[in-house]
Amino acid sequence: MTSLFSQEGLTGLIFLVLLGITGSGALVAVTAGRLIRSVAGLLLCLIGVAGIYYFLNSPFVALMQLLIYVGAVGVVIAFAVMLADPNPDKQPARGRNPLMGGLGFLTSGAVFAGLAFLGASTAWKRHMGPPTDSGMAAIGKSLLTTYSMVFELISIVLLVAIIGSLVLARAGREKI
Amino acid sequence: MTLLTLHTILTTYLVLGAFLLAIGLYGMFAQRTLIGMLISAELMLAGASVNFMAFNRFLAADPTVGQIFTLFIMGIAAAEAAIALSIVLAVYRNYRSIDTEDVTDLHG
User: Which one, of B53, B32, B54, lies nearest residue B99 by Cα?
Assistant: First the structure.
């Protein structure tokens, strides 16, 4: 039993806090009545996931998560909410078919139970052998050698996405 | 295995990934607006990324592969968010609403 006030204990406590942040953020994101609150919940959840990445030995991916997701994607979604959320006050008045909520709860509960059971009960084969370098330098090296083709392809994908979203957002502009 | 050593075992991360995926799936059913559904899709992608990173940390022979895959997931998710949000804006221009129940031209 680890003591709470040792180094390992505090590390475990921080991990538990991060788990709580992630879970509660995800819950807020899907259950909030107003759209801007679910955006805030999503951002909270993604900050928690960035901390989880830090625990998984990859500070670079954690920083990228903060930059790309929490910074860029969060701001973009918040902008879209500001541009396209007509009158949030009327939203709770129109209920959706309650059957959908129940069915969704059942389906996602079944998916969660099945995946969690599989993950916990499978005997995963650990990699045997000397640990290899997983730092930022190793990531950069393999991005520019083994995965250089994918690296270039994803920049093309991003370019096409930028042009496509500009074209899409321009269409029908004269109707306003 | 106590509560404070949870971060050293693979199962915690797998359960967290499954939780994020399942809650994103629930959000897909429960949310009524297009932006809400996009938020649920981001949650599902986050669950998949957590799984990749967990397997990368605990099981992979080369621990850079999962990190690079997660970085590519982030890039694809950013592109997906940009496209989906401009589609949302186009829908809003045409229907004055982002509620999925209002976009029913093909309802029959």
Answer: B32
Q: How many domains is chain B partitioned into structurally? A: 1
A 97-126: CB under 8 A from B: 100-101, 103-105, 107-109, 111-112, 115-116, 119-120, 124-126
Is position B108 within any domain?
no
ipTM: 0.90
- For domain A1-89, which architecture applies? Up-down Bundle (1.20)
C-alpha A21/C-alpha A1 separation (Å) is 25
Full residue range of the structural domain in which residue B74 is found: 3-95
Tens of pLDDT, residues B7-17: 888 899 999 99
- Among B31, B67, B68, select the one facing A30 at the smallest CB separation: B31
Contact: B15, A119; criterion CB under 8 Å: yes
DSSP B64: T
